[in-house]
Amino acid sequence: MDIDKPNEDSNDKNNDDRAGNEAEDEESSDDEEEIEAPPKQELIIDLEKLKSIKERIVSSASELSISDLEQLNSKIIEIVYLYRLDVDKTQLLNDLEDVLK
Fold first, then answer.
1. Residue 44 main-chain phi, psi, to 5 deg
2. Which domain of life is it from (predicted)?
């Protein structure tokens, strides 16, 4: 046996192992592609009420100081974030109206 020459049997085995791992990786990625997205749900929102809230915010903005505008913005963002995952936005609009009172 020649010491400088690598064992050909072990190289073949390593190559077989790598090929087997690549095949497993391909199979696992195929499994991931089979996952179905949940069905889309229709958004429930009163567009007239939303338009009214927007108009109230815009009309009151000219009367507010920068500090008050920042506070209003912060409250609006907080409320929107709270209801971001809800399909029914009715309570979101109610909470926004309460902030504007």
1. -110, 110
2. Eukaryota
Q: Is the pTM of this model over 0.85?
A: no
- To 10 degrees, what angle do helices 66-82 and 47-61 make? 160
Rounded CA separation 22/12 (Å): 15
Domain ranges of the chain: 47-100
pLDDT tens for the chain, residues 1 to 101:
555 555 555 555 555 555 555 555 555 555 567 778 778 889 999 999 999 999 999 999 999 999 999 999 999 999 999 999 999 999 999 999 999 98
- In DSSP terms, 19 is beta-bridged to none
